[in-house]
Amino acid sequence: MQNRTRRVWSVATIAALAAAALAATPAYAAPNNNSVKKLTKAVTVEGVLDHLEALQDIADEHGDRAAGRDGYEASVDYVVEQLQGAGYTPEVQEFEFPYFEENSELIRVSPIPTTFVNGIDFLRNTFDSGTPEGTATGALRPVDLVIPAAALPANSNTSGCEAADFAGFTPGAIALMQRGTCGFAVKALNAQAAGATGVIIMNEGQPGRTGLLNMIGDATGLTIPAVFVTSAVGENLASTPGATVTVTVEFTAETRVAYNVIAETATGNDANTVMAGAHLDSVQDGAGINDNGSGSAALLETAIQMQKVKPNNTVRFAWWGAEEEGLLGSEYYVEQLTEAEIAQIALYVNFDMIGSPNYMFGVYDGDNSSGTAQPGFIPPGSAEIEDVFEGFYESRGLPYQDTEFSGRSDYGPFIAVGIPAGGLFTGAEGVKTADEAALYGGVIGASYDPCYHQFCDNLRGDGQNVALYDQLRLDYDLVGNVNVFALDVNADAVATAVITFAYDTSTVNGVRVPGKSHGAGKSADAFKNRFQS
Question: Which of 204, 323, 331, 390 is catalytic?
Answer without folding.
Answer: 323
